Amino acid sequence: MSAYAAYIVAEKARASVVLAVVAYRFFLSRKSATFFSPGVRLQAYALWNTIDFVINGLVFVLIGLQLPSVLSGLHAYSELTLITYAAAVSANVIMLRLLWIYPSTYVAEFIRRRVLQQMEARVPAKQIFVTGWTGMRGVLSLAAALSVPELLANGQPFPGRNLIIFLTFSGILVGELAQSMLYQSDDYEEQDFLDALQAASEKYLPTDFHFDLLKEHVAHDIEVLEAVLAKVKPITPEHDAKLNKLLSLLPEETLNTGKRLIFTQYSDTADYLYANLNKNNRADVDVISGNASKSKFRLVGRFSPHANPDYKPQAGESELNTVIATDVLSEGLNMQDCDTIINYDLHWNPVRLIQRFGRIDRIGSTHNKVFGLNFLPEDALDRNLGLKDRLKRRIAEIQGSISLRG
Question: How many distinct structural domains can be found in the chain?
């Protein structure tokens, strides 16, 4: 309803109602995180995307019905003249957009990264070119053209109104053609890839391989791996700084008063942590990974019985207070009895980290606070991996796409 208010205000002020509604939409999109909760926004987006699709279809149908009357009003122009006008206008629109969109994109990127300190991914030059080439298409273009009044204040027909609408239709068709050409190009590339994959899947002859060179490379790789193994072999648990840091943190009050869920990407690391955190074979500590034959549902029931009331403990089973797991436990499970998650290593995908926290930070939790402890990569290692920067960029992209703040 508020969009209608913007429309009415602009109409009373004798301003562009189209620009007023679009500007208001941009404002509301930017501020939606302040007005609505994330759950409301996600539901609203799904609903309004469907409504928007239906309304757009109806608008194009209704506008298409006007095209015959528009064409009948262009009898003063020859077909060649109309085609020339349409090509010239479309070319100018595309050129002007390309001249504008490159500097505007780079200026906006500079402001976000340098001034606002937002770690957003850089927009590829190819993507900018495609955006400029396809141009402004759709309901907004036609709405702007159709907003031109049919009559002047003196009652005379508005000069060139039919030509304006025709050229707008032409610009939309050119944009659609450009987009279809791009999609067609993608289809060709995909088919080329599939053809190459099919060819690569055929049987090879021994003569297709350079066995001497292959043996040389394999021998070199074995030497490198043996050198790496020799360097890490002296790092026993007593000399593992990361493990010792975890052991020193676990007795702290925040990590020692409730249940603890420790995540790692690797099953070997999970077994390593279990062996060193449970040297006394405590019954309230357990480990699970994709390689284990354990039932994750029974383990989750032992770890979080209140959140899983259907769990029935078997004879001899005890409740778990500490669980070490790979991402086999990061999806679709209720573990709200726990209030602390420890990420012993950072997953490269922030969505996976969100899923991990989603196991305990969810409806049904009785905790006023939940805690998360992340172990970051060693500085020298991260300079090569760039993991922290990659995660920051991906999190910024997620925040931008669903308007998260904070």
Answer: 2
